Amino acid sequence: MKKMKLVMIGNGMAGVRTLEELLKIAPDMYDITVFGAEPHPNYNRILLSPVLAGEQTIDEIILNPLSWYEEHGITLHLGKTVVDVDRARRVVTAADGTVAEYERLLITTGSNPFILPVPGKDLIGVIAYRDIADTNTMIETAKTHKHAVVIGGGLLGLEAANGLMLRGMSVTVVHISSWLMERQLDTVAGKLLEKSLADRGLKFELGAHTAALLGNDEGRVRAVQFKDGREIPADLVVMAAGIRPNTTLAEKIGLHCQRGIVVTDTMQTVTDARIYSVGECAAHRGIAYGLVAPLFEQGKVCATHLAHFGIGRYTGSQTSTKLKVTGIDLFSAGDFMGGEGCEEILLSDPTAPGGGIYKKLVIKDDKLVGACLYGDTVDGSWYFKLLREGRSVADIRDRLMFGESNIGDTGHEGHNKAAAMADSDEVCGCNGVNKGAICKAIKDKGLFTLEEVRKHTKASASCGSCTGLVEQLIMFTAGGDYSATPKKKAMCGCTDHSHQEVRDAIFKDHLTSIPQLMQHLGWKTPNGCASCRPALNYYLISSWPKEAKDDPQSRFINERSHANIQKDGTYSVIPRMWGGETTADELRRIADAVDKYKIPTVKVTGGQRIDLLGVKKEDLVNVWKDIGMPSGHAYAKALRTVKTCVGSEWCRMGTQDSTQMGKDLERAMWRMYAPHKVKFAVSGCPRNCAEAGIKDVGIIGVDSGWEMYVAGNGGIKTEVAHFFTKLKTAEEVLEYTGAFMQLYRKEGWYLERTVHYVSRVGLDYVKKKILDDHEGRKALWAELQFALDGEPDPWFDFDKARVDTRQFQPLQPQLASSATSA
Amino acid sequence: MTTWTPICRIDDIPVLGSRRVLREKGAAVALFRTETNEVFALLDRCPHKAGQLSQGIVFGSSVACPLHNWTIGLHDGQAAAPDVGCTPRFAVRIEDGAVSLKADELATLGTELPLPMAGPCLRHAA
Q: Which of A109, A175, A564, A594 has the CB geometry, 3.0–4.6 Å to A599, for a possible disulfide?
């Protein structure tokens, strides 16, 4: 097949990323020609500030060396500015007369710095801050000249000023507003930033209007003059007063432009279907983005359309801001200024070590709508997530300010400033990834987003408690940003549907099998993946009990073999011990099985049970049979343990028979599959020896009855359970606990623990459903009892539990005598 | 001349599932059956941390390792990007529903690769 011709005008980050995405999915579809006005291959423009500051070199920020273009057969015209496009003949022309034909055209001309229209703007020594040439001019000027003035106290201006100061110049920042970065920070944070930068040696002229730039006899700038007549010396003036989408060419060739080249959700220009545009020059739904993550997302969407896959829509991004000045942490997102109808939560400690801490959270209608952090930004990503999801924060409002990290984050030694960490310090405690490894991967592999870093390094990919640190590292190493799109997250790559949409469809359309569901909802893969199939299987059997059939091949191995796989491929077996009570008889049988099957490790678990570790898969069936105790479901997303204290039967402090209560709860709800594992505990008095405060449901006996707590968690984020209600009788405890569980089973997303479920829907909602709606509660409890009635014990009733027993028998190659030759 | 060793019937392998074939030496061989009744054989050993691929979830023509969810292609034994690694694959013959593996591959392929260890034997090993 003859290749089509693709021409790209502009050789920047967004455009080249689009080509990379395209080459990944359709490597042989196009003959590609690229025009770049600069004489350099694609480099990381965001990292010009660290280059200026002397922290990195130009070579280090090259993203695609010339060899990359060669490898992929791309014709590269460097230093050639395209001046015209004949859309009828489909030919582009560069200033030097170079022409190229196209069938698809991609315009990625980026943006231009805004040059203040003041007298003297064309003097020598007056520059913008946009590309390598500007950066080199600044570095060279700093060697020979003394005074620099940066016009513009925004992100770019401050980064330029900081760099020039580090290069030895005396730098004044001139800013029209009365505080710095007024589009990202409120007054207080802006002032803290000013003080911190002033302490480093920067000078400021705030609320100052530049009237003219004055030159000397040689035509070089010598001073900046303000409207009030004052002058300050300047051998170098850097204009950093904002950028404008570069639409000069697009307008000339008649493409519709309005604050950028207007594109659709498929990144096609609205004027000419053969012409696409991504990056800072493109206006999508009225917004021209300037951050890397949204632009890369645009690139990905654009690539799928160029490749004729016709999938993917770009639907806009929410963005946030960080400043790349080493040692200064600030973060802002959303409507951080507040105003009418908004409430603010503030924390202010202006004299805290390291330049002060200031945090402002803006809440509207019980939702977080804006955040502005200075000095401590590790929770930025958490706030940003809350902001994007738009969920109610009413139930966590009292703890919101203290961030996600105040509730027991573990695994990164309590670090909250990535810049202060040594390369050997561990960032991700789950996967053992240290700072050095993450930074190296970011640099070597050109990673920009959290998702990319997760994929390549596994950091932050498991429990996620180090996400804030990883994002800081991305920021400082690659200049990546926090920006992220979708509020609605697809279940996995196999579908565009979210967990909620799938759950709803199963219920509404009465779907009862995975193939039926996949056809109905247009799954993109023939039989899903290891991520969606277990979720679908759970959704089906929990929505349609006794009707939907369990599919063992869609379950994780533990739930297929009813034991817990270990690192060497052996399994662990934990029999159920109701309420943690056992007998001499049971212990004898366990001991005999340990001897008979040579089980290497016997361990008492935290849930008051006994764990037999290292059982060979072939022995599982016989171990279960010999022990003769019910399955503990210690391997399943199901009810695990019900931990109890000895309670009033023995304890001199006990007020209630907690052991019996625990046994009753366990007998009522064992065999109950759930979105994730579920643990209960029952204590007989408020001394709470059973640690009921960190369980999915915790029951605490008091003299007058039982207190019920829900949605606690002792795991990654130690989360104290919320007080739910006070109950009088054991029957009520069963009913309320069962109803809460059934609500969670019906509404929870797969792999969502009760703590996450409750925080998503809000405790008030759960209270409404269980405490206020008496009929509804009883109905839920009845539903759960119906679902569990007659459910098999998978260790004994193999057929009914759909256990494929063939798995326990390895195959033996048949003897050589029966072998055939060919 | 190739000698084929009969292993089982195709129906002995669950659809979207697998069976393990024990060998005298080395890791087992994992036999996989896809939804379209193709059968593949890989060394039952993930290139990452030697997890038993036979215990993973099979989808499309891939299997997800049960230990850390690496995705391994059944055609070629290659880990899906960005993970990097490869597990040896074995030739499979199906005739009239009978599944056979090559005798020489059964005897030698991948036998030098160490098996994963856990439990008290780690202490002795150290």
A: A594
Average pLDDT of the residues in A273-296:
90
* Tokens found for residue A501: 């949409």
CA–CA distances in Å: residue A313 to residues A287, A486, A491, A502, A741: 16, 11, 17, 20, 38
pLDDT of A472? 78
Q: Is B28 in contact with A810 (Cβ distance < 8 A)?
A: yes
Residue A450 has pLDDT above 60, yes or no: yes
What pLDDT shows up at residue A473?
83
Mean pLDDT on A397-415: 66
Instruction: Just give the CATH number of A637-806.
Output: 3.30.413.10
Q: Nearest CA to CA, how far is A608 from chain B (Å)?
A: 21
- The residues of chain A that CATH labels 3.30.413.10 are 637-806
| Predicted pLDDT at A408 | 46
CB contact under 8 A, A569 and B49: no
As its CATH architecture, domain B4-125 has: 3-layer Sandwich (2.102)
pLDDT at residue A537 above 80?
yes
Lowest-confidence region among A113-117, A239-243, A479-483, B60-64: A479-483
* Residue from A454, A535, A455 nearest A494 by CA: A535
Name the residue among B5, B101, B116 with its Cβ closest to that of A567. B116
pTM, two decimals, is 0.73
Give the residue extent of every domain in chain B. Answer: 4-125
Average pLDDT rounded to a whole number, residues A241-258: 94
Distance from CA of A563 to the nearest CA of B (A): 12
Q: What kind of architecture, by CATH, is found in domain A4-110+245-306?
A: 3-Layer(bba) Sandwich (3.50)
A527 touches chain B (CB under 8 A): yes
With tokens 């700072």, the residue in question is: A435
Instruction: Report residue A143 CA to chain centroid gap.
Output: 43
Residues A529-538 have a mean pLDDT of: 96
Segment (H or E) for A172: strand A170-175
Distance of CA A15 to CAs A35, A83, A86, A111, B62, Å?
11, 18, 21, 13, 33
Place of tokens 């059934």: A742
Tens digits of residue pLDDT in A23-67 = 988 999 999 999 999 999 999 888 888 899 888 889 888 989 999
CATH number of A409-487: 1.10.10.1100
Q: Per-residue b/e over A754-767, b at no fewer than 16 CB within 10 Å?
A: bbbbbbbbbbeebe
DSSP A721: P
Strand partners, A7: A33, A105
- Which of A336-350, A458-472, B5-19 is predicted least confidently? A458-472
- At residue A324 the predicted structure's pLDDT band, cuts being 50, 70 and 90, is low
* The domain made up of A126-241 is a member of CATH 1.10.150.20: no
Higher pLDDT, A379 or A43: A43
Locate the DSSP E strands across A574-617.
Answer: 601-604, 610-615
φ/ψ of A366, rounded to 5, equals: 65, 15
Place of tokens 């479920």: A757
**Of residues A628, A574, A618, A584, the one with CA closest to residue A598:** A618
Q: Is the pLDDT of residue A632 over 80?
A: yes
- Residues forming CATH 1.10.10.1100 domain(s) in chain A: 409-487
Q: How far is CA A275 from the centre of its chain?
A: 32
Q: Is B122 on the interface with A (CB under 8 A)?
A: no
For chain A, where do the domains classified as CATH 3.50.50.60 start and end? 4-110+245-306, 126-241
Q: Do B118 and A567 touch (CB under 8 A)?
A: yes
Interchain proximity A566–B2, CB inside 8 Å:
no
Residues of A numbered 171-190 whose beta carbons fall under 8 angstroms of chain B's beta carbons: which are they? none
